[in-house]
Amino acid sequence: MTASASDTSGKPRLFLTRRIPEPGYSFAQEAFSVTGGERDEPLAREPLLHGVAGAEAVISLLTEAIDDAVMAAAGSRLRVISNMAVGFDNIDVAAATKRGILVTNTPDVLTDATADLTWALMLSVARRVVEGDRMVREGGFQLWSPFLLLGRAVAGACLGIVGMGRIGQAVARRALGWDMRVVYTRISGPLAAGQVPAGARWQYRATVADVLQESDFVSLHVPLDPGTHHLIAARELGLMKPGSFLVNASRGPVVDEAALVASLRSGHLGGAALDVYEREPRLAVGLAELPNVVLLPHLGSATVETRGRMSELAVRNAIAAVRGEPVPHAVNPEVL
Ligand code: GLV
Question: Is the shortest distance between the CB of 87 and ligand 1 below 6 Å?
Fold first, then answer.
């Protein structure tokens, strides 16, 4: 730590773009001289550019774009941008690497919470849970009927997973309880035999198209990058089985949302369940009017336990980076 990067407390300067949960928030106050983070609301561009000036570490959230201009505004003391999220598409990692700034993220600690929410989405859309809840609240429930809000069976169906990383695998593990066959595709090829749990029926497919054509439920678990933007567009939706369901708890722009609305309107897809949106928090025209969609406000990792672990890990990443210690989760370790 250089003397100029710290205040009179001798602690390095950390800029928090937004309030983070405990215990990370207190942990940050102990280790750093903290500015920012007083409020839980997205930071506008000007206060962001102003706030980062002179910071040695920045903890960011996925609601702020951390691009080269932000890094330039921070100045030469900036050592680390610690994102409190597993995804880091809000950060220009190439620009950070060029400037020798470390980028870190918070994987692992949110895997189970996100996999659980994926299942909540899948079960909700298949069994029309939200439609049913709405009907009861609105006084529309008369009496049991053999035809009322019939959904589709999840048990025994085929689950397709696009992106079989940590979260994809956690979603697939849960499918064992539903006796589902899982087909998956993965950029780095099939999983090793030892990575497949005993009794699981996981089958690798070489292409996304293969997964789409075979699955009753398709769940997306890829990061957002130039190669996955609109990975699921009109052509891909057309490859999905009639009546099948699309679940997205990854990043909104992975799906062409207007094409999804068109596919749902045409009756080709059985339904969709989304936690994320192409132009978050805005929705594609017509999406909210469709009955067979479940829409959540980006809650993948939203449990008290998980958000606590994420905040702690984001601070641990930042501390390790400024102290020159081994960093738990570096996105661009080549700068070290
Ligand atoms: C949430 O979306 C995350 O990337 O952690």
Answer: yes
| Closest protein CA for atom 1 of ligand 1 | 85
Structural domain for 281, as ranges = 111-295
Question: Is residue 57 within 8 Å of residue 322, measured between CB atoms?
Answer: yes
CATH number at residue 29: 3.40.50.720
In angstroms, what is the C-alpha Rg of the chain? 22
Question: Which structure tokens are listed for 158?
Answer: 């085929």
**Is 276 touching ligand 1 by the criterion CB < 6 Å?**
no
**Spatial separation of the C-alpha atoms in residues 195 and 210, rounded to whole Å:** 21
Whether residues 86 and 176 share a domain: the answer is no
- Statement to judge: residues 225 and 273 lie in one domain: yes
- pTM to 2 decimals? 0.96
Would you state the structure tokens that stand for residue 62, as one six-digit string? Answer: 């996925």
Tell me whether residue 251 is one of the annotated catalytic residues: yes
Q: Note the pLDDT tens digit of each residue in 196-240.
A: 999 999 999 999 999 999 999 999 999 999 999 999 999 999 999
